[in-house]
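To the structural biology subgroup,

Please find below the input and predicted structure for Crystallin, beta A1, like 1, which we are adding to the shared reference set this quarter. The sequence is reproduced verbatim from the submission form. If anyone notices a discrepancy with their own records, reply to this email rather than editing the shared folder directly, so we keep one authoritative version.
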Amino acid sequence: MDSQHPCGTSIVYAELATLWSVPRAHQNALHAPGAHNSGCAHAVVGIKPKRQVLSKLHAKPALRRVPHSSSVTKTIKMYRFTRSAMMMPMMNYGMGMAPFFKVTVFEQEHFQGKCQEFTSECCNIQECGFDNIRSIRVESGAWVGYEHHDFQGQQFILERGEYPHWDAYSGNLSYHVERLMSFRPVYCASHQSSRMTIFERENFLGRSVELCDDYPSLQAMGWCGPEVGSMHVQCGAFVCYEFPGYRGRQYIMECERHSGDFQHWRNWGSHSQTPQIQSIRRIQH
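Predicted structure (tokenized):
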């Protein structure tokens, strides 16, 4: 058994503590004959050991700190910036808190009767308890309304503003139909960057002209006739009208529909009856 040292500490621990802090040059003197005859082990060499030496024997190993790399930091920042721009486009609009698309529909004209707010598409307003939509208030974003449910029939562009009755958004149709049963947002509307190409004949054949502005009369700008055979929307969204001055049937052309390719006038919508297009404008968002 280990004999107890007069200092109250085992000789073994005293020697171990001393060897931890004492330079190698003095360690031989510590083990020399008679080295333990004095009061304390460290008195033999005349060096006082540090008190924290024993605690070092039982301490947990320190964690190794990995130096920061400037390249790693830059990569993380780039990823976070790209993610916020791509994953949350709605939150960057306006004040960043309100939804990008918001519309309130009313069952009666002049914003009377039952009403309901929407921030996404509605394929059948009757499923929401409405008989019909007769007035609309668009608070943000661009929308397109349809004469029938499931986005069928005549199309009506609905941009930010108030539409107290059917005539306000109908585009002066040649026939009177006061009915709007479904609607959806136009997600790709981008007024400043909208661009499309119209072609004289179907399947993108014949004379072509690229459009990036509003044209109340295609013939006035030099287009060859009252008809358009096919269209390709590179970016953004347009509304095409049957007659000059933005009148008649409306056709909403979006780069996200059919990949922007409208090879035939029958692709313009379920209500398409003629290739006649005489005015075109960009959709406001």
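Summary notes: Confidence is low (pLDDT under 50) at residues 1-99. The radius of gyration is 41 Å.

Regards,
Lab coordination
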